[in-house]
Amino acid sequence: MRISIVGTGYVGLVSGACLADVGHEVICVDMDPAKVDMINSGRPTIHELGLAEILARTVGKTLRATADLDRAVRDTDVTFIAVGTPARDGRIDLGYVRAAAAEIGRALKVKPGYHTVVVKSTVIPGTTDHVVRQAVEDASGRAAGAGFGLGMNPEFLTEGRAVEDFSKPDRIVIGGFDERSRQVVGGIYERFDGAPRIFTNNTTAEFIKYASNAALATAISFANEISRLCRSVGDVDVVDVMKGVHESIYFTTRLPGHGPVVAPITSFLEAGCGFGGSCLPKDVTALVGQGRDLGLDLPLLSAVLAVNRGQPDEMLRLVDAHIPDLRDVSVTVLGIAFKPDTDDVRESPAFPLIERLKARGARVTAYDPVARPAGHDALQGVTLAGSLEDAVASADAVLLVTRWAEFGRLADVLAQSGRQPLVVDGRRMLDGSRFARYEGIGRSMLAGGRDAG
Ligand code: NAD
User: Which of 30, 225, 230, 418 has the fewest CB atoms found within 10 Å of its own CB?
Assistant: First the structure.
């Protein structure tokens, strides 16, 4: 099929590359000419495992990029909208989606024949059938259904393993304004074997995406709330508590003749310094905002966000127990990306933590193996180190924010440097017994825990 994709961010570029890789003819569209040039020269604009290899196979063959949206729509049969949907002032900002839909509509005004518009961006329930439909209809002079197809196909990929997730999806949700729209979208995924297909209407498709993300965010904040209580009670470690929870038959299945099968949701039922990224914070915020607009309070989801906002303070509480006055104290933050294996720093818990450290007079150094967000406001006055060794060379305290595998070397690096800074483990990935002074999120403080490890 001939497919155009508007927006070449994490979702648009990975979708475009993977669809081109299975034989579709794909045109990626972006308003940013630098991204277009990079893609056309086969260079990934984002850090994702396997993406460079797919671009090498497809660019110039089944994949190309352009800034000319009008032309891309005219040269294809289906157009995906994969632009950003940020949260602004507690609500979803549909500005990019509206603009893209109107541009597609203008192209359709002069393009003969049936064309299908598919929303891939995460949009609050009702957006495709109301906002997008209206924008395309107004600009094209055509009616949804007879004049053009309208589908909603949410994306569930996770950054850091986006190519793998897109190529081997756990489910393919296909919403449609009508049967014909669903058939077109379903046809695109014919070559993706094995994944269950959920055919539904557009609003249900939109809702499935939000309910999925809200469930994951709730699991994280639940574990973090439990971890706060663990920290305060004494003689208890949230890691041990959660291990016990994970052994429940609801999370771990034991089949005769097989070892235990642990449900992946358990990785969300673990304490940490908070969730970030371009999805969970903004999507839960958007749902709460939609509820508010409909006169509905969503106390559970509001609390999920409130717990998350407080996690950087949990890190600081652990620091305070050892170093109450941070003026002129040298603090190193390990990890700027919101999670490992990605360069995405959007809504990373590193930023509010760094802001708080700076406000209290600390001298902050930050290090990330991949992310290089030099222009970010929170990083004003922060030294960006080029290696783990440099980052901790003069640290009085080291705060681990992102679960990068490289940070597993921290104990060895400190041993070699001869320094013994306070180490605060925001992801509970380190062996505490290897540090002179160690605190972990959700662990009773100052040797209040069972052991040092
Ligand atoms: P992004 O911000 O990385 O990329 C969006 C791209 O769209 C940018 O390159 C921008 O230049 C381009 N763009 C915006 N308006 C345009 C227009 N009118 N014409 C051409 N290009 C335009 O966004 P993303 O992270 O890829 O997310 C896109 C959507 O997918 C969001 O709704 C997000 O919630 C959803 N989503 C993201 C992820 C993720 O892990 N990043 C996962 C699932 C769903």
Answer: 418
